[in-house]
Amino acid sequence: MKKAVMAMWILLLLVAILSPLKTAFAASDGYYQLSAVTYEWDGTDANRTKATNSKYYYTYGDEYSIGYRLPWVVESYGRYYPYIAADTNGNLWFSVGSWRLGNSFDLANSGGPVISAWNNDLSSYYYGGVYIQYKTNPERVVIEWQAETYIEEGLYKPNNFEIVFFKNGDARIDYKSFSTTVGKDFGSGISKGDGVHYINLSTAFDKPFNLAGKSFLFAKLYNVTASTNGNGTITPISTATTYGGSSTFAITPADGYLLTSLTDNGVDVTASVSNNSYTITNVTANHTVMATFNKLICTVSSSVSGGNGSVSPASTTVNSGHNTIVTVTPAPGYRLALLYDNKASVTERVSNNTYTIANVITDHAIVAVFTEITNRPSLLNYRHGNTISP
Asked: How far apart are CA 106 and CA 108, in angstroms?
């Protein structure tokens, strides 16, 4: 008997420990992140007799739908949509051209991008409808459903819930009230429709008709990726964050190297690096971060191909980012023909027998080639009957 009581207490303790974990649960499909948030209710005018316009639209009945042109173009699952379509079965489809009328479908294989607030066969033939209303501060579109289940059609068993769609692509589902006594759910949530990318809210939390007075946010994820030119690391190399979030990167040069450049979406942000760390705050778009490492101390070596002159210094070390000067000295009767820096010709950059390497960030190998100076008779000397011996 004592063992049975002890087992019961252990079970109750586990339930007490694990129950809060479900509240804090967050799921992701790589495009969106689902989490429970503080309950809110936005609502619409929900009036069948109100005149429709660009900011207010509605329909009602069984297996009906309406298309609505958004005040902005929204990105979802990597594509951009100027329209949404809402049906009387509790679903919001992206783009009028990609939606399908239906209910009780397989969320993962929905046939197109969809947010399903309640995946069930619903009807507003006798009561309610689906109402779409544009609001500001902040800009959002509210899609409200007042509907009965098809089985309870005409029995006045109202159910009330909404999707609040924000300009940044986030979507919040608010469940206000449910009267159904025979409620069913076939998997509510968000889906790309490809069988891979979807989040099942019903599995993560509960069936919608058990979630009255609760709100859930599908927050759009922004990808932040990082890479280097070698000679060091930046971590993480890939992460995702929600709108307004932040991402921090740890930057570690290899031994003998230092960070010489950090770009974020092509913009130099090296000055923003502190203690080998870089943070992107208030993320509102995807980011690509690139770290460039170069040698801390570089070697510049000089040589002559074929003799007949010299280059100095023959070898020197230069702190990364500094300049150095190479002096070119032809032997008597010779001149500089070519000067190479890491096999690239830089002859035209020689001035007064000196060549300057600015902002040294790598090793350099300098090679000089000298050629003999030859004297040739001039036209003037020929005219005077003079000759010039070589």
From this structure: 6
For 120-158, write each residue's pLDDT tens digit. Answer: 999 999 999 999 999 999 999 999 999 999 999 999 999
Q: Is 36 helix (H, G, I), strand (E, B) or coil?
A: strand
For residue 101, what is the DSSP state? -
CB of 62 closer than 8 Å to CB of 123: yes
In sequence order, the 6+-apart residues with CB closer than 8 A to the CB of 132 are 44, 56, 57, 58, 66, 68, 86, 141, 142, 143, 144
Q: Are 57 and 108 in contact (CB under 8 A)?
A: no
Say if residues 27 and 204 touch (Cβ distance below 8 Å): yes
Q: What is the pLDDT of residue 12?
A: 45
Cα–Cα distance for residue pair 213/175, rounded to 1 Å? 6
Residue 161 has pLDDT above 70, yes or no: yes
Among candidates 85, 90, 75, which has minimal Cα distance to 173? 90
pLDDT in tens, 65-100: 999 999 999 889 988 999 999 999 999 998 655 555
Residue 315 CB contacts under 8 Å (≥ 6 apart), including other chains: 299, 300, 301, 302
Dihedral sign of CA atoms 47, 50, 56, 61 in order:
positive
- Six token digits for residue 20: 């809060």
Q: What span, in angstroms and rounded, lies between the C-alpha atoms of 143 and 256?
A: 59
* Alpha carbon distance, N-terminus to C-terminus of the chain: 122
Tell me the pLDDT tens digit for each residue of 269-290.
999 999 999 999 999 999 999 9
> Alpha helices of the chain — where are they, by DSSP H?
2-23, 201-204, 379-383
199 class by beta-carbon count within 10 Å (0-12 exposed, 13-18 middle, 19+ buried): buried
Cα–Cα distances (Å) from 201 to 26, 150, 208, 366, in that order, read 10, 22, 8, 66
What phi and psi, each to the nearest 5 degrees, are found at residue 18?
A: -80, -25
Distance of CA 9 to the CA centre of its chain: 47
Q: Which residue do the tokens 């060549």 mark? A: 355
Contact 311, 328 (CB under 8 A): yes
Cβ-contact 239, 280 below 8 angstroms: no
